[in-house]
Structures are given as C-alpha cells and as structure tokens.
Specification:
The chain has ten helices and seven strands. It is an alpha/beta fold and 253 residues long. It folds into two domains: 91 residues, no CATH class; 141 residues, HUPs (Rossmann fold), CATH 3.40.50. Helix 2 runs antiparallel to helix 3.
Length: 253
C-alpha cells in the first residue's frame, strides 16, 4: 500500500500538475476575479519553478557534497541504487537516464580498485511493469563491458529506497558484518538513502553522483529565462523532500 500511495503522492506534488489545475480552474470559473487570480497563480508557479538560479539555490542546500578520491578508502562493496534505466523491448536495448551516472562512476571506482565488488539493488519501481527487474539488466550490462560476474551481486525484490536497504541487509549483513560499504546514488537522493541504510545496520560512506547544483552562475539566461528542464528537475527535488519527510514519519530513517 505504501508503494502505491507514494506513486500517487509523486503525481500530486508535481509543479506541472499545479499549473494545469490553476489553468483549468481559471478556464472554468465564471467569476472574473477568480479567473484572473488563478491565471496569475499559474503564471507565478511557472516562472518560479522554471528558473534555473532558484532551483540551484534549493538544490545546493539539499544535495550532499561529492567525495574526492583522496578521501576514499578501500571498500568491500560499492552499493548502487537502481532507478536509472528503461528497457526498449522493440530494439532490445537499455535506455539510460541521467541517474545512470551512479553506475558509470561505480565502474570507475571498481577499475581504480576503490571497491572490490559491485552490489546493485532494485527490482521494479513501476506499477505498470512489476516484473521488470532492473538489477538483472544492469548486471548483464556490466558483464558485457568487462566486469567479472564474480564481482557483481544483485537483489531484485525492492521497489523503493526503504526496500533497497532492507533487501540489501538481508544479503550482505549475515556474512559481511565487518565489511566496509560505499553507498553510491544521486546527490539529491543521498540523505534519504544513507539514513535508510543506517536504519538497517549498514553504515556506509556516501559517494554522490549526478549533482544538479554547482558554482553559482550569474548569467542572463540562467537568471531570467524559463527552462522546461528546470521545471522537471523541481519535480525530482520536491518528490525527494516529500519522500524524506514521509519516511521519517513512518520510522524508516
């Protein structure tokens, strides 16, 4: 039930939905004042959530910092949280999303011998495709590009961050209580993921990937020109903050 409610919540807290609702109310309203109010509200929401500079400021506060190589030690496992691919059955190939940076940086860490083994966690996070086991596809991909199969472990039952941690603990903790773990996920997602893993007894060091924020940019387009990509990135951030709060309420952190 929690899984399905979280999907509904993600839809309801999307800025695009707020804009559409305001425009819809404005269109249907018979009162001139109300029509104008909701039209202005839709415009203000659009301008705020499509501004790159504003997004950067919020992301900079929320995202955890990256880790320099010199600050790393040697780890027994690099734990990668999935949620980075879709599968195109017509062309029989994987389509990687921006969060695939988690996988690519993990491969680099493995090649540089910072991690001995790669552990991929995640089954299907989709309501429509419950049988899609993302970790299996990612394991096959790693084997294709030359990572030895003996150094790749997966779990395919989890559907969200809480379950990622629980299912990972079931596999790793019984035989690896004293192992060193490096948790690899997106910078905006790391706060929630790290606390979930701490909760189940896996005390990992964070390794943040695909950061959205960076040095402040005082350029005209970044400051003033609306950007559709920024609007979509806000959805990620709002969903993540809502997820963090919800997990805290349920005692998952």
């Amino acid at each position: 039930m929690f899984f399905y409610l979280s999907k509904l919540l993600m839809f309801l807290i999307t800025p695009v939905v707020w804009i559409v609702v305001c425009l819809f109310i404005s269109l249907l309203s018979k009162k001139r004042a109300r029509k104008k109010t909701y039209l202005i509200a839709a415009l203000l929401i659009l301008l705020f959530f499509s501004n790159g500079f504003i997004l950067d400021e919020f992301m900079r506060k929320w995202e955890m910092p990256a880790t320099k190589y010199e600050d790393l030690k040697k780890y027994d496992y690099g734990i990668i949280l999935s949620g980075m691919i879709t599968y195109d059955s017509y062309y029989d190939r994987l389509d990687f999303k921006q969060s695939a940076d988690r996988l690519f940086q993990a491969v680099e860490l493995y090649k540089k011998k910072y991690i001995k083994k790669i552990f991929i966690t995640g089954g299907s996070g989709s309501i429509l495709k419950p049988d899609f086991q993302e970790s299996r596809y990612l394991k096959d991909y790693l084997i294709i590009i030359g990572i030895p199969e003996k150094d790749i472990l997966i779990e395919v039952n989890s559907r969200n961050t809480r379950e990622n941690a629980v299912e990972t603990a079931k596999i790793l903790l019984p035989e690896n209580k004293n192992a060193d773990y490096l948790l690899i996920t997106s910078a905006f997602h790391m706060r929630r993921a790290l606390k979930c893993y701490d909760k189940v007894g896996i005390h990992a060091d964070p390794y943040c990937t695909n950061r959205y924020s960076g040095p402040r940019k005082f350029v005209f387009d970044h400051l003033f020109i609306p950007d559709s990509g920024t609007l979509m990135t806000w959805t990620l951030l709002i969903h993540e903050i809502a997820g963090y709060v919800t997990y805290a309420v349920f005692g998952y952190l």
